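Private note to self, pasted from the team thread so I don't lose it. Backbone tokens:
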């Protein structure tokens, strides 16, 4: 079986840090409420930067660390639900900014917070027939642009940022995936039609219940496919929506302390960017070593979810 192998990672955050204290000047809330309900202390907001600026920076880092040049890239995908433009895609902007070749397969995909893992599956499939054997996959969001100050329970969660990976196809490697979606409109939606398009709307409690259900189910399915136990894994990296969701699932499955990686304290929920940002943090800290087994799960608007188990 072939599998995607991540050669290198990168990340880029905007310059402005927005702490929970800062949040108190924007909506009626408190550091204590936000931290105890979500595990978030601060997040980043763009001020002047565009999503494409962050995506470019993260992509350059990943390509440099992989030792690749722009002309080596055969596929460039950007997972986002908050692109700078509906068209051109952020991926086509990357093609121009990075100098990718004209025949590079470039497009954005939107699977909300599950977008990065949908992107990994898509990039892997495209690499089977791409002009060159390397894919650049970026998760990039500017959610501050669609955040609704009139809904404080949702407003305080989100942050902006980008994470990138460079992938190649590897033969005889470990690679299991699950994906799903529910054709749901009511629970999460943003920027619909009409004279007054909705900013980001989310029914937090419904998403919480959905997330706990699909994260647990995905992990069980992936472990069964691999034939291993949860605590045999090296890392579980879930979409960083809320620390309580991850604690709940970790406890239910009997996970050992520290198996579920958490960094929402510093970034908030960055949607499609959260998993590649986490991968980059761990990789840069030397916490991801060749052969380690990593399980990742994303979930979000759609309602979508995706999980993968792969070897680093
Ligand atoms: O990336 C997509 C995936 N998204 C998620 O996974 C989000 C999942 N859901 C959540 O993380 C949680 O549902 C939230 C953090 C969004 C909300 O937490 P909650 O425990 O579900 O709070 P709630 O909205 O039910 O509100 C509980 C109370 C209410 O007060 P009363 O009615 O009990 O008096 C709210 O008015 O907390 C109040 N509240 C706040 N208080 C201070 C809501 N938001 C805030 C706030 N600061 N920001």
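Design output:
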């Amino acid at each position: 079986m072939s599998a995607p192998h991540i050669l290198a990672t990168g990340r880029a955050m905007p310059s402005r840090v927005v702490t929970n204290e800062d949040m108190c000047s924007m909506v009626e809330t408190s550091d204590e409420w936000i931290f105890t309900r979500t595990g978030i202390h601060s997040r980043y907001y763009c001020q002047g930067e565009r999503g494409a600026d962050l995506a470019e920076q993260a992509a350059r880092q990943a390509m440099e660390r992989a030792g690749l040049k722009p002309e080596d890239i055969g596929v460039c995908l950007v997972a986002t639900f908050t692109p700078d433009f509906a068209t051109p895609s952020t991926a086509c902007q990357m093609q121009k900014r990075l100098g990718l070749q004209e025949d590079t397969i470039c497009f954005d995909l939107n699977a909300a917070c599950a977008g990065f893992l949908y992107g990994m599956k898509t990039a892997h499939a495209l690499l089977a027939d791409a002009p060159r054997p390397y894919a650049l996959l970026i998760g990039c969001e500017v959610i501050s642009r669609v955040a609704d100050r009139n809904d404080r329970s949702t407003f305080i969660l989100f942050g902006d940022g980008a994470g990138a990976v460079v992938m190649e196809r590897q033969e005889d490697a470990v690679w299991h995936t699950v994906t799903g979606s529910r054709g749901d409109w009511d629970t999460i939606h943003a920027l619909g039609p009409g004279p007054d398009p909705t900013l980001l709307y989310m029914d937090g409690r419904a998403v919480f219940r959905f997330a706990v259900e699909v994260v647990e189910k995905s992990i069980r399915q992936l472990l069964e496919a691999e034939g291993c136990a949860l605590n045999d894994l090296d890392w579980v990296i879930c979409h960083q929506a809320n620390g309580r969701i991850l604690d709940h699932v970790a406890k239910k499955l009997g996970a050992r302390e520290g198996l579920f990686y958490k960094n929402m304290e510093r970034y908030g929920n960055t949607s499609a960017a959260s998993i590649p940002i986490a991968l980059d943090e761990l990789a840069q800290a030397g916490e991801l070593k060749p052969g380690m087994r990593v399980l990742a799960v994303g979930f979000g608007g759609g309602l979508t979810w995706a999980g993968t188990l792969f070897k680093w």
